[in-house]
Design brief:
By secondary structure, the protein is an alpha/beta fold. The chain folds into two domains: 151 residues, Resolvase, N-terminal catalytic domain (Rossmann fold, 3-Layer(aba) Sandwich); 38 residues, no CATH class. It is 49% helix and 20% strand. The strands form two sheets. Strands 2-1-3-4 form a four-stranded parallel beta sheet, with helices on both faces. It has a two-stranded antiparallel ribbon with strand order 5-6. Strand 5 and strand 6 form a beta hairpin. Helix 6 packs antiparallel against helix 7. The chain is elongated.
Length: 208
């Protein structure tokens, strides 16, 4: 091989460093944790997230150096997520990561403050936070769009929570139940104003 050809390859390698990626996957329930196909309404099983993230890694020309899966029932805030803390410690200590890839920002962060703090913390380590399903681009406008997205994600969670509380309270007022029946009772359904409402009834077997 000629010296010119060799130098050309060296320049190409220097110009295109391999992007070193860590995957951070998170689910909200054990069912999603155990599923290898889409059983939840949002299609957010671990297998789904991993496949989409790996496609994005290939598109970016990167390699996966590690993967972190936050288990079901983990806290919404980052200080209550042990796997997230473990990932951040690894990045700080090894300094061999260029990018943290998440499926969606709404999957990784339900709090816009946590999202912003994570961006800043990773930025200080020269690590980018990238969403596999969202494209924000680069620059100040991209940062603004990320912040807006995080705020709307937070707002959606809050509004959904309030909506659930209202529905549960209304259900209880109408004689319905919001959980499984205790020992000695059975879950039942009754018609109220033409609508089926979950309620409880005495268990005839245990009542004997």
């Amino acid at each position: 091989m000629s010296k010119a050809s060799l130098n050309g390859r060296v320049r190409d390698a220097a110009a295109k460093p391999v992007l070193r990626v860590v995957l951070y996957l998170r689910v909200s329930s054990k069912r999603q944790m155990d599923s290898d196909y889409d059983r939840d309404p949002e299609g957010n099983s671990i297998d789904t997230q991993r496949k989409v993230c790996l496609e994005r890694v290939r598109a970016l020309g990167g390699i996966v150096v590690d993967e972190y899966v936050e288990p079901a029932k983990s806290g919404q805030t980052l200080d209550k997520r042990p796997v997230f803390r473990e990932m951040m410690q690894r990045i700080q200590e090894r300094r061999d990561v260029d990018c943290v890839l998440v499926y969606l920002r709404s999957r990784a962060f339900r709090n816009y403050i946590d999202a912003g703090n994570t961006e800043v913390a990773l930025g200080k380590l020269d690590v980018k936070l990238v969403s596999a399903k969202e494209e924000f681009g680069e620059g100040h406008m991209a940062q603004a769009m990320k912040a807006i997205t995080d705020v709307f994600n937070w707002l959606q969670v809050r509004m959904s929570g309030e909506d659930i509380k209202i529905k549960m309270a209304n259900k209880a007022r109408n004689g319905g139940t919001i959980g499984r029946a205790k020992v000695g009772y059975l879950n039942d359904k009754v018609l109220i104003d033409g609508h089926k409402v979950n309620t409880i009834a005495l268990d005839p077997e245990r009542a004997k």
